[in-house]
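Reading a protein record of the kind used here takes only a little practice. To see the layout at work, look at the sequence and tokens printed below.
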Amino acid sequence: MRSARPTLQGCGQFVSSAPAKVTTWSTTVLCVNSLNAPLCVLTVHAHPDDEASKGAPTMAMYAQQGVRTVLVCCTGGEEGDVNNPALKEPGQPFHGLDAAEEKALLARLRPAELDAAAKVIGFHHVEMLGYRDSGMADSPTNNNPDCFHMADIDEAVGKLVAVIRRERPQVLVTYNEDQRGYPHPDHLKVHDISVLAFDRAADDEWYPEAGEPWQPVKMYYSTWSRMRLTAIHEAQLRLRGKSPFDESWFDRLDLDSQITTRIPVAQFMYARSGALRAHKTQVDENEPFWFGLSDDELAQVYPFDDWVLAKSLVRGAPLEAGQYEDDFFRGIR
């Protein structure tokens, strides 16, 4: 690998605040190759269960359409807690365990939960990058040399680049750069490696051992929109008489102005609820935060997944003010 970040520009224009760069012949060829290849979307997540809570209906929709869907999970979620009290009842796997035994069992169970959730959503391939969960910000586990937070950035990017070059996605999905609402070290690192990998995957001077260069042409950020939060909160008040979303949720920064893409997913709400339930150690199916509305009710209240188009190397037809994309592959197919 080399020590300086390469200069790279695509066949279209960036949808970002970054300055324009000079188009090169080689990168234009890579973009053309991307546009002519079988459709693929690759999504990068920090822990098992993130794929369930962030855009599962969208991924299920694309899988059903025949688009290849690839999940990259950066850690094993070893530092999570057992959030389902039923699993600590007599006769259940976590009953009577001390803290160390609980963590050890959790580390063994979470990969299987991820596999089960991926099957519900319909992912064609799941790739584990192999890092250890870093734990919450400022916890002692942040200093574990095996954790994702401590991983060398170039090494971690190289692992993701290898997956991108092998799977050849047109679309890369990752986390927003602004994560003040939930600044988990692993979520921050997912953003950092994804942004670099988007560019480096196309440059043969980076990671030549990782396969032939490949240029994704669109990158999206997942987001929990204020529109969605408000709709679910008001529906729970109306239908259930109470809501799990207190004022602290509405004190978070409103990033709805960044949203570019709203994908209709009313028929695919099962992917979210089913994948969440697959993570039995992490999710209590009686918890109104996740299951305060049924799939049908959620589909009526807010039948969309919201996304931010962070970077694009393709030119689609211009949208009018107030319009949203409804397809990751707009401008590609």
Remarks:
- Residues 76 and 111 are 7 Å apart (CA to CA).
- DSSP finds eleven helices and seven strands in the chain.
